[in-house]
Amino acid sequence: MARAPSEMLGWVTPPHPNDKMRGQFWGVDSFLSMPEDTPMDGFPKFSRLSLARQIDSFHWDVEYFERDVHILILGTLHAASTYLSDELKEDLAKLDTALESATGHYAEHLDGVRLEVMEYHYDQQRFLRNMGVVSLSSRLTHALNQMAIHAESFSPRKKAYPGKSEYERFWSEYKERFGLDFDAHAEFIAFVKPMVDVRNRIIHDGGQANRLKTMEESTSGDTLSFEKNLDRWFSNQYPQFVEGEGRSAEVKVSQEQLEDMLDQACKLVRWLAAEMRERQLAHAAAQDTDDPNKDDLISL
Questions:
Q1: CB atoms within 10 A of CB 162
Q2: Which of 57, 90, 268, 295 has its CA 20 to 30 A from that of 48?
């Protein structure tokens, strides 16, 4: 059963102790009020570590990601699912009322319409959950990119990193820039490849689990046979995400599977944010240590 938005709000990352500092840098008013030609030689220097501790952009990345996941993805799913369920109940009530007095062929017709309405509702619910996977993948890549950008203050970013897919390039970048070992922490990214494969099947093949091979791909010799020329790779690789058989097989993500992906994505973002925050503070501390005037640095 889909979680209600009120329940999801309880999942959002709690406020960070330094949230009060958002947009409130120490002394900013005095900076803005100083004449442009004010000499800066005698201006006090602040500890980089002290300054870095005031603003945790990685915590905000986690906070925004979890809110979007639970409100914009699960919340939208819950609202749409509730609407469809209410619509189904209303339509079935009308049909059941009509069936009470219907006879013969008209009753058979109404029975057929009732079945079509239920099938349509089922397909729409499946579509909503599938779109949740698509949305999650897009939002996760945005979060990974945002954190990589925010880390440029202590670790320069190259124009490109090796990898066939977008996620592989992210893993290469995070390993090269931050020394993160995804082999040793494979549990954090294990969900990503299945999520991406499901997403790609939904986007590129319209949710068909067994797409029809092109004539060039076919090796059966019988290019007119649907069953012999189906690409069953996805069904064989991910039977847990497939409903139906043969040409009619569809990609189906259950509510439980979607919520598990969402939870795993939040764990990944939290882990990366903590690792990068640790490196950010270590970099700032090293800058303080190397400063020739370190004894004069001011801490906030």
A1: 10
A2: 268
Q: Note if the pTM is more than 0.85.
A: no
By CB atoms closer than 10 A (0-12, 13-18, 19+), residue 287 is middle
Does 220 map to a domain?
no
Could you tell me if residue 50 is inside a domain? no
Give me the number of domains the chain comprises.
1
User: Considering the domain boundaries, does residue 201 fall inside one?
Assistant: yes
